[in-house]
Structure formats: C-alpha cells, structure tokens
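hiii, so i know i said id send this last week but things got crazy w the move. better late than never?? heres the sequnce for the chain we talked about at the cafe, plus the structure i predicted for it. fair warning i was half asleep when i ran it
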Amino acid sequence: MAKLTKRALEAMTPPEKGKQAFLWDGELRGFGVRMLPSGLQTFVLNYRNAANKERRINLGRFGVMTVEQAREKAKVKLGMIADGDDPADADKDPHHQQTVSALCDWYLAEAEAGRILGRRNRPIKKSTLAMDKSRIETHIKPLLGSRLAHTLKVADIEGMQSDIVAGKTAKPRGGGRGGVTTGGPGVASRAVGTLQSILGHAARLDKIESHPSRGARKLAGKKKQRRLSVAEIKKLGAAMRHAERNGESPVALAIVRFLALTGFRISEGQGVQRHWLNAGVGYVAFPDTKSDAQIRAIGPSAAKIAASQPARGNNPYVFPSDITDGHFTSAKACLFRLCASVGIEGVTPHTLRHTFGSVAGDLGFSELTIRALLGHAAQSVTQGYVHIDEALKLAVTRTCEEIASLLDEEDKAVFPEQVERQAA
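okay and structure toks below
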C-alpha cells in the first residue's frame, strides 16, 4: 500500500449501493479513508484498545480536512492509545476535546468578563490580558494551538520554549504600529508562564482533568542591570537641549525628563492623568499600577515638569497625544534618538528607572527606601488623607534634584557649537 495522497483520494471510485470502500495508508498503520456510494469520503483510524478490542473512529471529512491534517490527528490519537487511553471513549468526554487554541480563547473570554481571578484574587488587569493575548496569538497558537490540551507533556511545553528562543515565531514588523516579534529567553519564558497559567485555570475550573504543564521549567530571565553613569546622564541632558533646538517633540522630551526624575515605568509616566497629580504636595495618586493603587512621591523638578504641561481640550492626561484623545505614546522612540545622537548604547526606558534607584543608592538611601521610591512598597491613603513618610520625601527630593542637576550641567565636549551659541 502506498502513502495516502490527495490525488489517490480523488481517484477513488464510489462503491455499489449499500457498500463501503476503503483506502489505507501504507505508512501509518490503521489510518485510511472510507468512501460511501454517495461519494462522501471520511478519514478513519482503526486500532485495538488496551482491552484488545478492535475499534474505529472518524477523524473528519476529506475536503474539510486535508490528508496531512488527518494524518496529524491520527498520530495524536495513536499517542493516546500508546498511553492506554481509548480515543473512542475520549471523544465522548469534553475534557478530551479541548485544543490548546480553544482553551486560550476560553481563557481570554472568561478573563475579560472578570470571571477568572489573578493576583490577590482580583480580576486580571486589561494590560495583563493584552500581553497574554499577544503571546497567545504570536507564540502559543502557532506552535501548540492544534494540539489536544490533555495530550500535552512537559517536553511539549519546553519544546515550545526552545522554538521561541530559536526564532520560529519571529516575524518582521508590519505596516502598522508595534514592534518586531523576535525570539529570546525572556519572551519564551513569559510565553510558557502564560500557557501554564491558562492550563492551571482550566484544570481548576474543570475544563481539563489535570494540569499537563506542571513541572515544565522556564528559562531564567536576564536581570536588567544597565544604568546611566554620571557622564551619560550629562550627555543625555545635552542631547535633550540639542534636540529641543532641532524640532524634537516637546511632549516627548518632557516625558523622557519626567521618567529620569521619577523612576516611573514608561506606562506610568506617559499615562499620568491630571487629577492624579498633586504637584504642590509632591505626589501622584495612581488608582491602579502593577502593584495596585499607590501614592508615589515625586521631587520638585519632576512636579514642575508635570504641572507646566499645557492642557489639550478635554484630554485628561498630563502628556496628551496630539492626534488622539489618549496619552502620548512615542517617548521610547524619542529616548532612542536622544541616546543615539550622543553615542549612549543599550538604553531602554527601564534604564532610566534603574538609574533613578541607583542614584538614590549612591546618595546613601536604604534599599527599603529605594523600593518605596520605585513603587515596590505602596504608601497608604486613609479617609482621604495622604500619608507620605518624611524620610521618603527627603529621598525623592534629593534623588530627583541630583539627576536634574546632572541633566542641566553643560558639557562642551558633547555639542560644542550649541554651548558657543548660548555663550554668544
């Protein structure tokens, strides 16, 4: 018998009325196609279960399903048989009919409706769901989406991780907004984490019988240690002054400076709303962050930047977009341009956050205080009264003003023509 092909199936002749015709694959034992007098062709799998009882199951119709799709499905069923399961019984059990793709869709729908709880037993945040959806569509579905969830093994999960690292799901940037999808240990590890979370919720809520990825090991992420040196902070300040004279967006420059003076995450800095800001007292009251609602102290120079931003109609943001009703979103690109103009390499918005914490450490503040500065330890709000520890006020003020001083310090070696023009 030869291997089943599309051409061979199309060449089959319908049997006489009341009979069936079969064509079997010469490579995968038990896999074949059954033809009825009407001409309908259905892929089938013949096998013996653990009790040595001969059984036959339908895999799908030819035309709706390709030969190769049917072959892959047959392999999955044969794998179940090797594990002692009986696909004929499993097909009657909804636990055994869940594909990884279907579970991902179920998870997103349930989580968006607030019926799946995340950290601190609260509904999963929209920002987290957006990242989950990106990993699902970019990595998980292309690599494992067609697999039956209950057949997954640790090797499959770790294999997906290796494939992402190798760049099998990488793709170039499209015509719209958004970055390039690449591989790497960090991306792969986060994709595994998302899949494990989905499977864990599915097992807990009885969508599948067990958690098939339990025990899979995630690659250790590389901890970001990059900070700007004193010389680099001065260069960044010079680059900002030069860019301001050469048409760079004033909103983008303000955000970059604000991030450098606060240590805020870029999503926090760009998304600050006016009614969250109390520049006079020196704090921003975030209703929701990565660590829930927080009061974050800011220094005088940072407060001055935020308070001086012009309002744009009814836009509620401190740093409004000039083309939508949302907030400005291109500060990251501006930071990259600034650093490139003065030869500073390996900088991301997180570098500014790490620099803020490092400068605070250089000034002698404790690790606990620095964690509070960066929002790892929330300040309290009780009955409308905002309490910010005096030691924290001192730390944020000294750190903010130290960085502001370095950013404002002239450096003739960076853009000498600019300094000469200012002197003239």
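btw The chain has a mean pLDDT of 86. thought thatd interest u
miss u guys!!
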